[in-house]
Protein backbone atom coordinates (compact mmCIF):
# COMPACT_ATOMS: atom_id res chain seq x y z
CA UNK A 1 0.00 0.00 0.00
CA UNK A 2 1.44 3.36 -1.08
CA UNK A 3 1.51 6.28 1.33
CA UNK A 4 1.35 8.83 -1.44
CA UNK A 5 0.64 8.99 -5.15
CA UNK A 6 2.23 6.33 -7.33
CA UNK A 7 3.38 9.18 -9.55
CA UNK A 8 6.34 11.01 -7.93
CA UNK A 9 5.73 13.92 -10.29
CA UNK A 10 2.57 14.69 -8.31
CA UNK A 11 4.75 16.33 -5.65
CA UNK A 12 5.05 20.07 -6.17
CA UNK A 13 8.17 22.16 -5.78
CA UNK A 14 7.91 24.30 -2.64
CA UNK A 15 9.31 27.63 -3.79
CA UNK A 16 9.22 29.12 -0.30
CA UNK A 17 11.47 26.34 0.97
CA UNK A 18 13.77 26.72 -2.03
CA UNK A 19 14.01 30.47 -1.38
CA UNK A 20 14.78 29.92 2.31
CA UNK A 21 17.63 27.53 1.60
CA UNK A 22 18.92 29.68 -1.26
CA UNK A 23 19.10 32.75 0.99
CA UNK A 24 20.96 30.88 3.74
CA UNK A 25 23.42 29.48 1.19
CA UNK A 26 23.92 32.92 -0.36
CA UNK A 27 24.67 34.48 3.01
CA UNK A 28 27.11 31.66 3.77
CA UNK A 29 28.98 32.56 0.58
CA UNK A 30 29.85 35.91 2.18
CA UNK A 31 32.19 34.08 4.55
CA UNK A 32 35.48 34.91 2.71
CA UNK A 33 34.80 38.64 3.14
CA UNK A 34 34.18 38.26 6.88
CA UNK A 35 36.94 35.80 7.70
CA UNK A 36 38.72 35.74 11.03
CA UNK A 37 40.28 32.85 12.86
CA UNK A 38 38.01 33.44 15.83
CA UNK A 39 34.93 33.33 13.58
CA UNK A 40 36.14 30.06 12.08
CA UNK A 41 36.62 28.71 15.58
CA UNK A 42 33.08 29.71 16.52
CA UNK A 43 31.73 27.95 13.43
CA UNK A 44 33.61 24.74 14.22
CA UNK A 45 32.55 24.82 17.87
CA UNK A 46 28.87 25.30 17.03
CA UNK A 47 29.05 22.71 14.25
CA UNK A 48 30.20 20.19 16.84
CA UNK A 49 27.83 21.36 19.58
CA UNK A 50 24.68 21.46 17.45
CA UNK A 51 25.77 18.64 15.14
CA UNK A 52 27.43 15.98 17.26
CA UNK A 53 25.69 16.67 20.58
CA UNK A 54 22.41 18.09 19.32
CA UNK A 55 21.69 15.99 16.23
CA UNK A 56 23.86 12.87 16.39
CA UNK A 57 23.58 12.21 20.12
CA UNK A 58 20.27 13.95 20.80
CA UNK A 59 17.91 13.74 17.86
CA UNK A 60 19.38 10.52 16.51
CA UNK A 61 20.73 8.12 19.09
CA UNK A 62 18.83 9.35 22.14
CA UNK A 63 15.40 10.36 20.80
CA UNK A 64 14.99 8.40 17.56
CA UNK A 65 16.41 5.09 18.78
CA UNK A 66 16.37 5.45 22.57
CA UNK A 67 19.83 3.91 22.70
CA UNK A 68 20.58 5.73 25.95
CA UNK A 69 18.68 7.48 28.70
CA UNK A 70 19.61 10.71 30.46
CA UNK A 71 17.85 12.85 33.08
CA UNK A 72 14.90 14.72 31.62
CA UNK A 73 16.50 18.14 32.15
CA UNK A 74 19.55 17.02 30.19
CA UNK A 75 17.41 15.39 27.51
CA UNK A 76 15.59 18.67 26.98
CA UNK A 77 18.85 20.64 26.90
CA UNK A 78 20.35 18.32 24.28
CA UNK A 79 17.13 18.50 22.25
CA UNK A 80 17.42 22.30 22.21
CA UNK A 81 20.92 21.91 20.78
CA UNK A 82 19.44 19.66 18.11
CA UNK A 83 16.80 22.25 17.30
CA UNK A 84 19.54 24.86 16.92
CA UNK A 85 20.96 22.81 14.04
CA UNK A 86 18.05 24.17 11.96
CA UNK A 87 17.16 20.70 10.70
CA UNK A 88 13.59 20.81 11.94
CA UNK A 89 11.90 20.29 15.25
CA UNK A 90 12.45 17.10 17.25
CA UNK A 91 9.12 15.48 16.39
CA UNK A 92 9.64 16.11 12.67
CA UNK A 93 13.24 14.86 12.71
CA UNK A 94 12.57 11.75 14.80
CA UNK A 95 9.45 10.78 12.87
CA UNK A 96 11.27 11.04 9.55
CA UNK A 97 14.20 9.02 10.79
CA UNK A 98 12.04 6.27 12.21
CA UNK A 99 10.24 6.05 8.87
CA UNK A 100 13.61 5.81 7.15
CA UNK A 101 14.54 2.79 9.25
CA UNK A 102 11.12 1.18 9.00
CA UNK A 103 11.06 1.45 5.19
CA UNK A 104 14.70 1.93 4.21
CA UNK A 105 15.10 2.77 0.51
CA UNK A 106 11.43 2.18 -0.27
CA UNK A 107 10.76 4.80 -2.94
CA UNK A 108 7.44 5.80 -1.40
CA UNK A 109 7.64 5.18 2.34
CA UNK A 110 11.25 6.24 3.04
CA UNK A 111 11.27 10.08 3.17
CA UNK A 112 14.76 10.28 1.65
CA UNK A 113 15.05 7.02 -0.25
CA UNK A 114 18.46 6.65 -1.92
CA UNK A 115 16.84 4.57 -4.66
CA UNK A 116 15.41 7.77 -6.07
CA UNK A 117 18.92 9.06 -6.70
CA UNK A 118 21.65 11.03 -4.98
CA UNK A 119 20.02 14.44 -5.26
CA UNK A 120 16.65 13.23 -4.04
CA UNK A 121 18.09 11.65 -0.89
CA UNK A 122 20.41 14.59 -0.34
CA UNK A 123 18.09 17.60 -0.68
CA UNK A 124 15.26 17.29 -3.21
CA UNK A 125 13.06 15.43 -0.71
CA UNK A 126 12.91 18.74 1.17
CA UNK A 127 12.15 20.82 -1.93
CA UNK A 128 9.33 18.47 -3.01
CA UNK A 129 7.64 17.90 0.36
CA UNK A 130 5.33 14.94 0.81
CA UNK A 131 2.47 15.74 3.17
CA UNK A 132 2.94 12.37 4.88
CA UNK A 133 6.38 13.51 6.06
CA UNK A 134 5.95 17.29 6.43
CA UNK A 135 2.44 17.85 7.78
CA UNK A 136 2.41 17.66 11.58
CA UNK A 137 -0.93 15.87 11.79
CA UNK A 138 0.53 13.15 9.57
CA UNK A 139 4.08 12.69 10.80
CA UNK A 140 3.49 13.09 14.54
CA UNK A 141 1.99 9.61 14.74
CA UNK A 142 5.45 8.18 14.03
CA UNK A 143 6.85 9.91 17.12
CA UNK A 144 3.96 9.75 19.55
CA UNK A 145 6.31 9.46 22.53
CA UNK A 146 7.55 12.98 21.75
CA UNK A 147 4.23 14.35 20.54
CA UNK A 148 2.70 13.62 23.96
CA UNK A 149 5.28 15.90 25.60
CA UNK A 150 4.30 19.59 25.72
CA UNK A 151 7.94 20.71 25.67
CA UNK A 152 8.66 18.81 22.46
CA UNK A 153 5.49 20.13 20.84
CA UNK A 154 6.62 23.66 21.69
CA UNK A 155 10.16 23.05 20.44
CA UNK A 156 8.85 21.46 17.25
CA UNK A 157 6.74 24.53 16.52
CA UNK A 158 9.19 27.29 17.43
CA UNK A 159 12.64 25.80 16.70
CA UNK A 160 13.28 28.34 13.96
CA UNK A 161 13.00 31.27 16.38
CA UNK A 162 15.86 29.90 18.48
CA UNK A 163 18.30 31.16 15.86
CA UNK A 164 17.47 34.75 16.82
CA UNK A 165 19.04 34.79 20.32
CA UNK A 166 22.02 32.84 18.97
CA UNK A 167 22.54 35.40 16.21
CA UNK A 168 22.17 38.31 18.64
CA UNK A 169 24.68 36.78 21.04
CA UNK A 170 27.16 36.13 18.24
CA UNK A 171 26.77 39.68 16.96
CA UNK A 172 27.43 41.04 20.45
CA UNK A 173 30.55 38.90 20.77
CA UNK A 174 32.08 39.33 17.34
CA UNK A 175 29.93 41.37 14.98
CA UNK A 176 28.82 40.24 11.54
CA UNK A 177 31.83 37.96 11.18
CA UNK A 178 30.58 35.76 14.01
CA UNK A 179 27.03 35.83 12.63
CA UNK A 180 28.05 34.84 9.10
CA UNK A 181 30.24 32.00 10.34
CA UNK A 182 28.30 30.96 13.44
CA UNK A 183 24.84 30.97 11.87
CA UNK A 184 24.83 30.87 8.08
CA UNK A 185 28.04 29.02 7.20
CA UNK A 186 27.57 26.66 10.13
CA UNK A 187 24.00 25.87 9.03
CA UNK A 188 24.99 25.15 5.44
CA UNK A 189 27.93 22.91 6.31
CA UNK A 190 25.94 21.06 8.97
CA UNK A 191 23.02 20.57 6.59
CA UNK A 192 25.16 19.01 3.90
CA UNK A 193 27.21 16.84 6.23
CA UNK A 194 23.99 15.48 7.73
CA UNK A 195 22.45 14.95 4.30
CA UNK A 196 25.54 12.99 3.26
CA UNK A 197 24.29 10.23 5.56
CA UNK A 198 21.04 10.07 3.60
CA UNK A 199 22.80 10.08 0.24
CA UNK A 200 26.42 8.94 0.01
CA UNK A 201 26.35 6.32 2.77
CA UNK A 202 23.71 4.46 0.79
CA UNK A 203 25.92 4.58 -2.31
CA UNK A 204 29.62 4.24 -1.43
CA UNK A 205 31.72 2.47 1.18
CA UNK A 206 32.11 -1.00 2.60
CA UNK A 207 29.64 -3.33 4.28
CA UNK A 208 30.41 -5.15 7.50
CA UNK A 209 26.89 -6.55 7.84
CA UNK A 210 24.45 -7.87 5.28
CA UNK A 211 21.31 -5.78 5.68
CA UNK A 212 18.17 -5.55 3.60
CA UNK A 213 19.35 -2.22 2.24
CA UNK A 214 22.41 -0.64 0.64
CA UNK A 215 23.76 1.08 3.76
CA UNK A 216 27.54 1.55 3.77
CA UNK A 217 30.37 2.46 6.11
CA UNK A 218 32.19 5.49 4.69
CA UNK A 219 35.21 6.82 6.55
CA UNK A 220 35.16 10.44 5.36
CA UNK A 221 31.43 10.76 6.00
CA UNK A 222 32.05 9.45 9.52
CA UNK A 223 34.69 12.12 10.12
CA UNK A 224 32.38 14.89 8.89
CA UNK A 225 29.44 13.64 10.97
CA UNK A 226 31.12 12.67 14.23
CA UNK A 227 30.64 8.94 13.67
CA UNK A 228 27.34 8.75 11.80
CA UNK A 229 29.09 7.65 8.61
CA UNK A 230 29.49 4.10 9.93
CA UNK A 231 26.03 3.71 8.53
CA UNK A 232 26.04 0.00 7.75
CA UNK A 233 26.88 -0.74 11.38
CA UNK A 234 24.02 1.49 12.42
CA UNK A 235 21.46 -0.05 10.09
CA UNK A 236 22.44 -3.53 11.24
CA UNK A 237 21.98 -2.54 14.91
CA UNK A 238 20.04 0.75 14.99
CA UNK A 239 19.39 0.72 18.74
CA UNK A 240 23.08 0.49 19.64
CA UNK A 241 24.50 3.77 20.92
CA UNK A 242 27.85 3.26 19.22
CA UNK A 243 28.18 3.51 15.43
CA UNK A 244 31.91 2.93 15.08
CA UNK A 245 32.70 -0.62 16.19
CA UNK A 246 36.24 -1.32 15.06
CA UNK A 247 39.15 0.44 16.74
CA UNK A 248 39.77 2.60 13.69
CA UNK A 249 36.10 3.50 13.14
CA UNK A 250 36.27 6.87 14.88
CA UNK A 251 32.98 7.84 16.51
CA UNK A 252 33.26 11.18 18.31
CA UNK A 253 29.62 11.12 19.36
CA UNK A 254 30.27 7.85 21.16
CA UNK A 255 33.07 9.57 23.07
CA UNK A 256 30.52 12.09 24.36
CA UNK A 257 28.14 9.28 25.34
CA UNK A 258 30.96 7.52 27.20
CA UNK A 259 31.71 10.74 29.07
CA UNK A 260 28.07 11.09 30.09
CA UNK A 261 28.07 7.46 31.19
CA UNK A 262 31.23 7.93 33.26
CA UNK A 263 29.63 10.98 34.87
CA UNK A 264 26.58 8.81 35.62
CA UNK A 265 24.42 11.07 33.49
CA UNK A 266 23.70 8.41 30.86
CA UNK A 267 22.06 5.11 31.72
CA UNK A 268 20.72 2.11 29.81
CA UNK A 269 23.35 2.66 27.12
CA UNK A 270 22.85 -0.01 24.46
CA UNK A 271 26.16 -1.61 23.48
CA UNK A 272 27.12 -3.72 20.45
CA UNK A 273 26.51 -7.46 20.85
CA UNK A 274 29.58 -9.46 21.84
TrEMBL record:
What residue stretches are annotated with the Fatty acid desaturase domain?
A: 37-257
The protein's topology relative to the membrane is:
Multi-pass membrane protein
CDD domains under this entry?
Delta9-FADS-like (cd03505)
Q: Name one GO cellular component term.
A: membrane
User: What Pfam families does the database record attribute to this sequence?
Assistant: FA_desaturase (PF00487)
Where does this one sit in the cell?
A: Membrane
Which GO terms fall under biological process for this protein? fatty acid biosynthetic process
Superkingdom to which the source organism belongs? Bacteria
Q: Which cofactor does this sequence's record say it needs?
A: Fe(2+)
Cite the PANTHER family for this sequence: ACYL-COA DESATURASE, DESATURASE 1, ISOFORM A-RELATED
Give the family this protein belongs to, as stated in its UniProt record: Belongs to the fatty acid desaturase type 2 family.
Name of the protein in question: Delta-9 desaturase
Amino acid sequence: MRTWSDNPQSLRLDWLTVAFFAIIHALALLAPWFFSWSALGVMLLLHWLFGSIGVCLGYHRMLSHRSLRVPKWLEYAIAILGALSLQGGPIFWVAGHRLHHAHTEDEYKDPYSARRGFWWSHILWIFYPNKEFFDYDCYQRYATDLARDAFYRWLNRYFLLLQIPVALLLYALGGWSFVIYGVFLRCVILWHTTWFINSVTHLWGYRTFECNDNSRNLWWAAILTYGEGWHNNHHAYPHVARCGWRWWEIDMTWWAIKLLKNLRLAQDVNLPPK
